[in-house]
Automatic annotation (TrEMBL):
GO terms for cellular component: cytoplasm. PANTHER family: FATTY ACID REPRESSION MUTANT PROTEIN 2-RELATED. Residues 9-177 form the Nitroreductase domain. GO terms for biological process: cellular response to oxidative stress. Keywords: Cytoplasm, Oxidoreductase. Its main location: cytoplasm. It comes from Achromobacter pestifer. The keyword Oxidoreductase applies. This is Nitroreductase domain-containing protein. It is found in: Cytoplasm. InterPro entries: Frm2/Hbn1 (IPR033877), Nitroreductase (IPR029479), Nitroreductase-like (IPR000415). GO terms for molecular function: oxidoreductase activity.
Length: 199
């Protein structure tokens, strides 16, 4: 059975070799990212996911700030490899910063006390689905990307630099750009170890 969504999902891969050779405009990429997040599901239709989309020099600035933040805690020996990896993220067209709005979570906890313990979990699930939606949409437009997690190490500098509301909790960073390298084969564990079907 053919399925366009699964075809797009299979196209989504981690790309560390990013470049700036994209034909898509900043406006088109912004619309694509926004639409992917807007149409991602969330519990109680909470729409708790937030994003800051950084292009060009602003994206480079993010990864420069990340380099300095990581340098403070990482061993000096071998840091050149870490720095090179972070600079590779800056080599792309931009970066999406993904956040979850904790004010939304708290509001739902107050409104639906019976489910209070679940709302932080459901927020994380909504955030994950938003990240996957954006990543898949980018891949389907032949834009490379990867998902990074330098939070909470960079939370403070990000909040200060881009005036992030206090209730927005940084969850992930997605550098994106042109695919400057191909992809190797992707391995999968045996289905019998992972799935059970009944009925």
């Amino acid at each position: 059975m053919s399925n366009a969504y699964l075809d797009a999902l299979k196209k989504r891969r981690t790309q560390y070799s990013l470049g700036r050779n994209l034909s898509a405009s900043k406006e088109a990429l912004t619309t694509l990212i926004q639409d992917a997040i807007k149409h991602s599901p969330s519990s109680f239709n909470s729409q708790s996911s937030r994003a800051v989309i950084l292009f060009g020099a602003e994206s480079v600035k993010l990864w420069d700030l990340a380099i300095e933040a990581v340098r403070k805690v990482a061993p000096a020996e071998g840091f050149d490899k870490t720095e090179a990896k972070l600079k590779s993220f800056a080599a792309g067209v931009g970066t999406v910063l993904f956040f979850e709005d904790q004010d939304v979570v708290r509001s739902l906890q107050e409104k639906f006390a019976l489910y209070a313990d679940n709302f932080p979990v459901w927020s994380e699930q909504a955030g994950g689905m938003a990240q996957l939606s954006v990543w898949t949409a980018l891949a389907n437009a032949d834009v490379g990307a990867s998902l990074q997690h330098y939070n909470p190490l960079i939370d403070g500098v990000v909040a200060g630099e881009w005036k992030i509301p206090a209730s927005w909790k940084l969850r992930a960073q997605m550098p994106f750009g042109s695919n400057e390298n191909g992809f190797g084969d992707k391995g999968f564990m045996d289905d019998a170890e992972r799935f059970r079907v009944a009925g």
